């Protein structure tokens, strides 16, 4: 018997259900609101040609989803036995991981679009003329930061633990990346260390795109390496139950 149509139908229904659940999640609301709040709170103090605040808030929006929301959701599903129970249905357990990851990335990118539109309308911000470069580095940065979130989801024994690990990682990474204060105000040593983190490399290349500087290959290679290596680590460590 061909089970492919049944699996496609079940996967479609799963996507609809997961979308509804995500839209009702208070954590999803706050991951959208926090970057917008930062933009509004500090946007009135920057000029129309500012090239620092918007790249910072874009990186923050991706990091909040990747390190908080996504690992908590996946670890909670494993903790409650949802992944194990799915193995007895037409939907393979891996499908829910794909659906969740796609929805979480869509949320992060939706937050980014909201931030860009808000900055343009409220503060006259300009987006880079090189749209392909912006999309490319944004996609690569998203992959790098989300791969770290996948490792958290793989090793956390519960949703609460995943959230706690995400908190512990977010704040030092955000500081080193220059997301809690501009890098010119940070010690040079901390800035240098931050350049070797996935979030720091992400913020750096976004800033280069906004300032129309030539993209340095080092942070691009670093983000690609993080995306590949950490994803492989997550796959190796991930437990279904």
Total number of helical segments? 10
- Uncertain segments: none
Query: Rough shape?
Result: globular
> How far is the first residue's CA from the last residue's CA?
29 Å
| Structural class by helix and strand composition | mainly alpha
Rg estimate, integer Å: 19 Å
Q: Write the element-wise H/E pattern from the N-terminal end onward.
A: HHHHHHHHHH
What is the residue-mean pLDDT, rounded to a whole number? 85
Q: How many β strands by DSSP?
A: 0
Query: Which percent range fits the helix content?
Result: over 70%
The share of residues in extended strands comes to under 5%
Main beta sheet strand tally, sense and closure: none
Task: Outline the structure in words.
- With 241 residues, the chain is mostly helical.
- The chain has helices spanning 4-24, 26-43, 53-79, 82-86, 93-123, 131-155, 159-176, 188-194, 198-210, 217-237.
- The protein is built from 10 helices and no strands.
- The mean pLDDT is 85.
- It starts with a helix and ends with a helix.
- Helix 3 (53-79) runs antiparallel to helix 9.
- It is globular, with a radius of gyration of 19 Å.
């Amino acid at each position: 018997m061909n089970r492919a149509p049944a699996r496609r139908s079940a996967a479609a229904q799963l996507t609809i259900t997961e979308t509804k659940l995500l839209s009702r999640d208070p954590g999803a609301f706050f991951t959208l609101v926090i970057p917008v709040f930062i933009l509004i709170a500090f946007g009135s103090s920057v000029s129309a040609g500012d090239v620092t605040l918007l790249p910072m808030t874009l990186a923050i929006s991706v990091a909040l989803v990747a390190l908080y929301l996504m690992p908590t959701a996946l670890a909670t599903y494993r903790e409650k036995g949802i992944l194990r129970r799915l193995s007895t249905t037409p939907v393979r357990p891996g499908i829910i991981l794909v659906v969740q990851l796609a929805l979480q990335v869509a949320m992060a990118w939706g937050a980014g679009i909201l931030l860009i539109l808000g900055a343009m309308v409220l503060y006259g911000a300009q987006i880079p003329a090189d749209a392909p470069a912006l999309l490319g580095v944004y996609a690569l940065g998203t992959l790098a930061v989300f791969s770290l979130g996948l490792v958290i989801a793989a090793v956390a024994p519960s949703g609460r633990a995943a959230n706690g690990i995400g908190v512990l990682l977010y704040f030092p990474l955000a500081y080193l990346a220059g997301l809690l204060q501009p890098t010119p105000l940070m010690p040079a040593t901390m800035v240098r260390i931050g350049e070797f983190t996935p979030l720091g490399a992400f913020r750096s290349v976004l800033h280069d795109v906004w300032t129309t500087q030539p993209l340095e290959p080092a942070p691009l290679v670093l983000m690609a390496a993080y995306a590949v290596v950490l994803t492989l680590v997550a796959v190796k460590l991930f437990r279904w139950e």
